[in-house]
Fold this sequence. Notes:
- By secondary structure, this protein is of the alpha/beta class.
- The chain is built from nine helices and seven strands, in the order ααβαβαββαβααβααβ.
- It has one domain (6-255): Vaccinia Virus protein VP39 (Rossmann fold, 3-Layer(aba) Sandwich).
- The chain has a seven-stranded mixed sheet with strand order 3-2-1-4-5-7-6, with helices on both faces.
- It is globular.
- The termini are far apart.
Amino acid sequence: MPDIDFGRRSEDYATHRPGFPDSFYDRLETFIPLSGVKALDIATGPGVVALRLAQRGAIVTGIDIAPGQIDAAKKKAKTLNLDHRTTFEVCRAEEWEAPAASLDLITAGQCWRWFDHGVLLPKMRTFLKSGGLLVVAHFDYLAHRSVIAKRTEDLILRFNPGWTLAGKTGLYPEYIDQVIEGGFEFIEQFCYDHLQAFSCESWRGRIRTCNGVGSGGMTPETMEAFDQELGEMLKRDYPDEPLQIWHRIWAVIARKPVKPA
């Protein structure tokens, strides 16, 4: 299987892949008001989380290893007039450097499984101020709750039988102990479901970003054949838009221990 490279589908990411809904950021602001905070968003992609934080007043640096993703993030920031609140850099999260105790918030959206946590967590703890927050979050479609998503995954597996991430429940309780073992104080885990609307075109675009499809799981030729068949299935069996797909928001909130006064 080709190497995973999410930058291959940066345009689809920026255009078709939905970010966390407003309710997620509302919930986040019960832990830390975002206006004026200094934040880092790791594996930022096209800036999906970083730009939403900036819209709520944060000063955000987004980093990603894929140059295409960073280019897309910069373009979107300029379009949204957020380039004065955002900085985007090509960098591995484990290699990024910043002054100690310079950040209020670090976010990791839809990416935690891809890191070397033994290297990353001590660095993130160093960068955060005393009491600063680490937020690890996912926003996953649920194949077990949405027939369209289940049929899409079945089609992916027909074209890419080696794909191992089908059937996700959107729950990641193992991350709690990871952040605790990394020296953070666990504050809360929260989870709720959200019905996300797609057009047929946007669902196809969202699926092209999947690690089992256009981000490296299939060759370009196989992906084109898959995408065409998915489009035919949607047009034939689900002509009424929008398509309503259940997603699950899951997050763990952790804190750098507060130093005694």
